[in-house]
User: Fold this.
Amino acid sequence: MVSLQDEMFQKFNFDTEWAVRLISKITNDEDMPIEGDAIVKQLLGLQINAEKFFFSIRKSLVEFDEVLEVQRKHVYDLRQLILTGDDESCSQHIFQYMQAVVDEIVFSNINPMKHPSTWSLSKLLKEFMTIGGKLLDESFGGITDDSLLNSLGQLNDMGSIDVVNFSLPNLPAPPNAFRGIRRKSSSLRRWLVICSDDLIENGKYRTASNLLRKYLGDFLIASYLNVVEESGYEDKYVKEIERAVLLKTLDCFWRDHLVNMNRLSSAVNIRSFGHRNPLEEYKIDGCRFFISMLSATRRLTVEALLRHWSSPMESLELP
Assistant:
């Protein structure tokens, strides 16, 4: 039994006035149940509209959740790999993070289509030093944007390049930390990834850009390996610290990302008033949020590890 005052009738535009007129012709008793083919037909139509409405809501929720599910799978797979991977896998994660942070700094300050004199080398060096902190103060602190520009200009005069022990002309060489087959192989693989990726545009100065990425990446990674070795701690303890920082940073940013995605799912519905598809808006902004989250995770992980090993007595508690 359904009352004509039920909000469902108003929500789905049921003609209650028509029903009231029909009922008044039959009886004046408001509590008497009304039956008839016309009433049943109208109620069936109402039920169909209600089912379509709630089905569209469920479908929308599933589609929104599918967007987040892709991100969730990526994060959970990464977390499982960190937890179950061996020590070498953990180290490779750290090196990839460091190279990725360097790449982001380089990409935001150069243009491979233009001469290095137009690049923001001063800002690039400042951001790189900010990442390295105390670890790079002595070895890299004396490099200026002019000296870096002169070094980049001399790349064309270089003959063969030793990829493993590469250094820009007239600039400090990275610490000699790439000893052993594994570390040399890791350095070579990073160079192959740099050369084969499409993160940077093809241009006249693409090679100079890639060599700059390799030099700064090598300097940061080698400085890190050097300070870890000088700390005197066992490899097992070092890997425990690295794994703990990786997991804690990832979990922290993932929780914040879930909150942001929940807020976004509510906010995009308002955009439908501007004739924009809420789901498409959710996908676009959700992807942008996710990329930003991964970037922040890498950056904070690198900063935390460098800060910890450059001042281990001041970093007893992980960030």
Notes: The CA atoms of residues 254 and 293 lie 7 Å apart. The chain has a mean pLDDT of 80. The longest helix spans residues 37-84. The chain has eleven helices and no strands.
